[in-house]
Amino acid sequence: MEMHQLRYFVAVAEELHFGRAAQRENVSQPPLSLQIKKLEEELGVLLLERTKRRVRLTEAGAAFLPEARSILATAKNAKHMALQAHRGEIGQVRLGFVHSASLGYLPQLVEPFRKAFPLVKICLEEMTVTEQVEALHDGSIDIGIVRPLVEMPEWESFQVVREGFTLVVPVTHAMAGQDSVDLRSLRDENFVFTPEHRSPAFYSQLMRIFAKSGFVPKVVVEANTVYTTIGLVGTGAGLGILPESVSCVQIPSVRFVPIRNTSETAELQMVYQPDRLTNSARKMVDFAKALAKHQA
């Protein structure tokens, strides 16, 4: 049983005329009649009753018609889904991200992508940079959103966010009401930092910022997440320095103060192994590149 045989049968069943059915299927009448005859022989039943004056469905033909239509519709849908999968419009993307990306960049990426490709399932997993590197190696995520990495030959990456830094202070701190702050005035303050092993590049960048200001910060508490850092700052444990996108977080116990006199910026990169991308993941990479270009 072949698809074109089913199409020819459905056409005759709906037209009740071999000539019109052949015209509809863009074939001559003899091949159409021959294929329906082969279909009947394969099924072992007569589907159509033919006379010189009319064509009508037999009981077997009437029972077979809805099934034939269903098979043709399923085949058409399967072809459509295969094409969508080939174009990356259906499937799954496993996306790792550092915590700070969830406050600004991630919503800007995920929501418009989801609207553009509603049949692509997005699986989000918050991970440290180190965890994302391991996950990209073992294939448990397709794409990572990380702080800048040491370049790896088999990987590709591009910048998706560049932003300044902000100082996080308790609402009771003397600097809470200032428009901006110079880091050199913070020599005697205590600080809350993300541990070096969780984000080596970010930690090194903060140390470089302080080195340019002429001192080494006194880190008294280490916090694994942005929210934990902000919460600890709010209790008076110390001050924090974070990417400025975190200032969208509304917490009454802290204030965010821009840092002046530094050219350092916090960057986020999208990283992936191009030869291991699924079609849907490649579609997200292309979408992110277009978004980054638009926002540049």
Automatic annotation (TrEMBL):
InterPro entries: LysR_HTH_N (IPR000847), LysR_subst-bd (IPR005119), WH-like_DNA-bd_sf (IPR036388), WH_DNA-bd_sf (IPR036390). One of its GO terms (cellular component) is protein-DNA complex. Pfam families: HTH_1, LysR_substrate. The keyword Transcription regulation applies. Keywords: DNA-binding, Transcription, Transcription regulation. Residues 1-58 form the HTH lysR-type domain. The keyword Transcription regulation applies. GO terms for molecular function: DNA binding; DNA-binding transcription factor activity. Belongs to the LysR transcriptional regulatory family. PANTHER family: HCA OPERON TRANSCRIPTIONAL ACTIVATOR HCAR, TRANSCRIPTIONAL DUAL REGULATOR HCAR-RELATED. This is Transcriptional regulator, LysR family. It comes from Vannielia litorea.
